[in-house]
Design goal:
The protein has 3 domains: 94 residues, OB fold (Dihydrolipoamide Acetyltransferase, E2P), CATH 2.40.50.140; 158 residues, P-loop containing nucleotide triphosphate hydrolases (Rossmann fold); 89 residues, Ribonucleotide Reductase Protein R1, domain 1, CATH 1.10.40.50. Helix content is 32%, strand content 19%. It has 10 helices and 13 strands. It has a 6-stranded mixed beta sheet, sandwiched between helices. Strands 3-2-1-4-5 form a 5-stranded antiparallel beta sheet.
Length: 376
């Protein structure tokens, strides 16, 4: 096994990528079986790059495991067990022989996972990053604020099990960054909101103090993720691109997700800009994103209040009193519907309930039309 030449300056130790005593303890049975620990630093179709104590290696991903069962697709950030090069694997398509490189044997259980709905809208979510400790939700101050998008990203971050932090980038291009920060803080309860500028260095020291463990950058193209990542890394390791003046949108300069050790400890995981941020069964994440609505809902007259038009609704009363913006409640309803729909695609019981409601509506409409025709 030889280290890839494209990473000559990267550390060659698992400890630099987050390996600790807890990881070592969890890996004990795999080590006893002759497997070696690794962390996926970049995943591609059919192969991936993983860091081990021998450096960063190209790893083959077999279609099935030794028993012929489908092997889970690895994601950047996953901890994995590799079968060393040249060792026999028994039966199955993962068999390796002398001269073969290391082979992925299994993906270890994920502690956290950042998951969104796939672009194809199938029932399977797309894992953007695994085993993340901090999710940096990047919001550009060089473009109009879009709170709906920020709420979506926060719901994804909370649902992952990691700790989100909102980072407002490009403060040097904003006339009143502090006002903008106060505005974003209202849609991010329980989350620290930091103002930064990669040009002037504003807020970068404060941000560094907030980061721990594996840090994932999340945001749309043009939000300044890669530029921010380069400042945290202390060098230009991530590709950056220009942003269109007309709408503030950028190009996808990051084409894949990869792990890079931070100079002060921890690991940075850069992700491509997200044009579509679909929710994938994020009920818990939404409850934390809209904590003020969830808190008010406890005082509603009905325990199953939908906060639409029910009498005694504490949420609607708060909206009427301008304590909660109507936009905020509308976003809450919209994201809840989207999350419930995503959940119903993977839960047969929920899907049957949704289909039953559709059929009831169809039968009601048909009966209404038939009645009208009889009256003519």
């Amino acid at each position: 096994m030889s280290q890839l030449s494209s990473f000559p300056d990267q550390p060659c130790s698992l400890a630099d990528y987050g390996w600790d005593e807890a990881c070592e303890h969890a890996f004990t049975p795999h080590r006893a079986a002759g497997l070696i620990p690794a962390r996926i630093v970049r995943a591609e179709r059919g192969s991936c790059e993983a860091v081990t104590d021998d450096g960063i290696l190209r790893v083959r991903i077999p279609a099935t495991d030794d028993h012929g069962d489908a092997l889970p697709s690895p994601c950047t950030g996953d901890w994995a067990a590799l079968r060393p090069a040249g060792t026999a694997t028994g039966t199955g398509t993962g068999t390796g022989g002398a001269g073969d490189g290391p082979v992925l044997h299994t993906v270890l259980e994920r502690r956290t996972a950042l998951v969104r709905s796939t672009a194809s809208r199938t029932s399977h979510g797309q894992v953007l990053a695994a085993n993340v400790d901090t999710v940096v939700v990047t919001v550009s101050l060089a473009a109009p604020l879009k709170h709906d998008r920020t709420e979506r990203m926060l719901a994804l971050a909370w649902e992952s099990g990691a700790q989100p932090v909102v980072v407002l980038t490009k403060a040097d291009q904003c006339a009143d960054a502090e006002r903008a920060a106060a505005e974003v803080a209202e849609v991010a309860p329980g989350v620290d909101v930091l103002v930064t500028s990669a040009v002037t260095g504003q807020g970068l020291d404060t941000l560094t103090a907030f980061l721990h463990g594996t840090v994932a950058l999340l945001g749309p193209s043009g939000a300044g993720k890669s530029t921010l990542g380069n400042r945290l890394l202390g060098e230009d390791r991530l590709a950056t691109g220009s942003v269109r003046d007309v709408d503030g949108k950028g190009r996808h300069t990051t084409a894949w997700r990869e792990l890079l050790p931070l100079p002060g400890g921890g690991v940075l995981l850069d992700t491509p800009g997200l044009r579509a941020i679909g929710l994938h069964d994020t009920q818990d994440g939404l409850e934390q994103t809209f904590t003020e609505i969830e808190r008010l809902a406890q005082d509603c007259r009905f325990t199953d209040c939908a906060h639409v038009g029910e009498p005694g609704c504490a949420v609607l009363a708060a909206v009427a009193a301008d304590e909660v913006p109507q936009r905020r409640l509308d976003s809450y309803h919209r994201l809840l519907r989207e999350s419930a729909y995503a959940a119903s695609r993977t839960d047969a019981r929920l899907r049957a309930g949704r289909d039953s409601v559709k059929k009831d509506i169809t039968r009601h409409l048909r009966a209404t039309y038939e009645f009208r025709e009889r009256q003519l």
